[in-house]
Write a structure and sequence with these properties.
100 residues, alpha+beta
Length: 100
């Protein structure tokens, strides 16, 4: 999976890179967030280990945008660990279903 291509796509879709200053996400994780409704955010967390790249997609409620990367969310409504392109396909289908 090409994480650089995914990061470029996220930036193009108005996701904002968030500083990871808390303890909830692993050290070195890159966090990209976008508010989808009042204090409900779509997050992509990219973890880069020695031998694997892992992306986590979350829909979560935070008290405000600035608490992302500092505190745990108040509620997680959706979570998916993306390890291959098929997982991205499932996530895309979920988002299309959620719009209806």
């Amino acid at each position: 999976m090409d994480c650089q291509k995914i990061i470029k796509t996220l930036r193009h879709k108005d996701f904002i890179k968030v500083d990871n200053k808390g303890n909830w996400f692993e050290e070195g994780a890159a966090i990209y967030a976008k508010e989808i409704t009042d204090n409900i955010f779509l997050l992509f967390v990219i973890l880069k280990g020695m031998h694997i790249e892992n992306i986590q997609a979350l829909i979560a409620h935070f008290d405000c945008f600035s608490s992302i990367g500092l505190k745990e969310p108040e509620q997680i409504m959706f979570y998916l660990s993306i390890k291959d392109k098929q997982d991205l396909h499932y996530f895309d289908q979920y988002l299309k279903t959620s719009d209806n």
